[in-house]
Amino acid sequence: MSLHRTESPLSLRLLASSALTLTTALFAACGTAPTPSVDGPEGVTASSLTELVVNGTFSSTTTAPWWSGPNTASRVDTGRLRVDVAGGTVNPWDALIGQDGITLVNGQAYTLAFTASATASTAVRATVQLGSAPYTAPLDQHITLDGTPRRFSFPFTSSLSTSGGQVTFQLGGRASAVTVFLDDISLSTGSSTGSGPLGMTSGFYVDPNSNPAAWVRANSGDSRAARIQSAIASRPGARWFGNWSGDIASAVSSFVAAADAADKLPVLVAYNIPGRDCGSHSGGGAGSPEAYRTWITAFASGLGSRPAIVIIEPDAVAQLDCLPSDTERQTRLGLLRYATERLRDLAPNTWAYLDGGNARWIAADTMAQRLESAGVRNVRGFALNVSNFYTTAESASYGSAVNTALNNRYGYTRAFVVDTSRNGNGSNGEWCNPGGRKLGTPSQVGGGAELLLWVKVPGDSDGQCGIAPGTPAGQFSPDLAIRLIDGT
What we know:
With 488 residues, the chain is of the alpha/beta class. The chain folds into two domains: 17-198, Jelly Rolls (Sandwich), CATH 2.60.120; 200-486, 1, 4-beta cellobiohydrolase (TIM Barrel). Helix content is 22%, strand content 23%. The chain is built from nine helices and 18 strands. It has helices at residues 196-199, 211-218, 225-233, 248-261, 289-303, 326-346, 364-373, 392-410, 478-486, and strands at 67-68, 72-77, 80-85, 96-104, 109-118, 122-130, 139-145, 150-157, 162-170, 178-189, 239-241, 267-270, 308-312, 350-355, 381-384, 415-419, 444-445, 451-453. It has an eight-stranded mixed β-sheet. Strand 6 and strand 7 (139-145) form a beta hairpin. Helix 5 packs parallel to helix 6 (326-346) and helix 7 crosses helix 8.
């Protein structure tokens, strides 16, 4: 569907939604895997950056070369761009501001970043796009602003070459008037560990209260303790949050605050979807859709503006087949979309990844359709191999196939991460505490995916099965840990 409006003397541009082409930015380091490090991305060299936006800091009284379209009036106010937006508009593009003359190069990595707030809660669409038909948009992001100034950063890769690009902020679609404030607007070439939450931290966070770490402290005299400390407890990994976490906003806030104080990047897993794990070993979850919406909103609020990585609901998309009716499947997809929207809107410095199963579970084309329905376009990307054992290479091949399907069907791709916590020996076809598995590459940038992460905590049981028939899901077993260390 093409979108039409009257052309103004400022040669304002309008995005044609049928021409959306969203692409995923990978770090500059992703082409070559850095040496694995327990601290994460140290040693990954940031690429040289070139600023493309003019007058993004509004240090003078002029707003030029930023232009204002219909239903907007702009001026510099205390070192910020103040945009007064009229009410009574229907579409985002009915009230917009922008800057023309942006040069884009096909295949080049860029990052759009800005600080923004508003006098009332309001939806905003930020784009980097072609300034003429067909208005292709390599970057198209929807955010929600409120009275708290927040920093947003969106890496992307251009899908076109042009000297006629533009940056726009589309502010319409409100019944009432609102004032939006923008500052420190930047569009820079290059995408590296200086982008997003990785650029705000000095490495991945080692959870001092993980199950392996707690076991080591309580069993310092055990002959296995030193090896578990060295190989597992001292390595960065995820903390899982669910219905056992108590006050979820407080639990999340405390965890990310500790990581922030250490200048490290925490990895969190949101694991509380109703009907979790199809009632199997890790069954449970929120008691109702309403309870889940309240829970995930509090989860996202606990993150705030601090940097974080979040994995959204392992298995929830892949396990749609276990739900008994289409109504329940649609309810779950709606809850996952809600989760992606809450994380997008309330946690601007979080990169969230919606779980996408593993390489041998759901066909890539089907998974792409499910991820689209579950809201993957609202977040950074998708996660693969969580709590499983498939090799990084096989997972990366599957991730590429999912992205091919996303691009063919919907015109965009997404970054993906791979859980490498237990994939050192690959899969033997079993998923529940199989023997002969081994620790994989520690958390790092690149290495076959955007990030390799220890999402599953090595040594935590999958359930009362396999080589740990007496160990409930989520409980730490030193015997499991040692066997992962040794690959036996």
